Amino acid sequence: IAKFLHRHHSTIARELSRNKFENNYCSTSAHNNYLKRRKNSSHSSKYNDVFSNLISEKLHENWSPEQISNALLNDKLSFKTIYNWIYIGKLKGISLLQLDQKCKK
After folding, report:
1. pLDDT on residue 99
2. pLDDT in tens, 13-46
3. Sign, CA torsion 17/21/23/25
4. Could you give the CA distance from residue 29 to residue 19 in angstroms, rounded to a whole number?
5. Nearest-CA neighbor of 50 among 66, 72, 65?
6. Dihedral of the CA atoms 36, 37, 38, 40 (nearest 10)?
7. What would the 3-class secondary structure string for the chain be?
8. What's a GO cellular component annotated to this UniProt protein (predicted)?
9. Cα–Cα distance between 89 and 72 in angstroms, integer?
10. Distance of alpha carbon 95 from alpha carbon 99, whole angstroms
């Protein structure tokens, strides 16, 4: 099976042992188990209303995400996270176009 799928034999053995029920393997139940494990594996988000309001307020005051991130050192919120929140629309009323653009020298 491993050669046919171009996978290492231990990968196949691990998949079978992880998703075997009463010595049978069912791909549907294996996929459902995968989805359950995947859903429970993520860590909690740092996003909340307090962060949202604070970040939105600072962005409206023309702070950059880098400046906000540096001001919130104790909360360990990266500027990339702030950009991601802006990009996916978690920060209401803020878009990437509203951020001040730096000019090249």
Report:
1. 66
2. 999 988 888 888 888 999 998 898 888 777 667 7
3. negative
4. 8
5. 72
6. 90
7. CHHHHCCCHHHHHHHHHHCEECCEECHHHHHHHHHHHHHHHCCCCCCCHHHHHHHHHHHHCCCCHHHHHHHCHHHCCCHHHHHHHHHHCCCCCCCHHHCCCCCCC
8. cytosol
9. 21
10. 7
For residue range 56-70, list pLDDT tens digits in order.
888 888 888 888 888
- CA dist 29 and 11 (Å) reads 18
Domain boundaries, the chain: 2-41, 49-98
pTM: 0.53
**What pLDDT is stored for residue 101 in this prediction?**
60
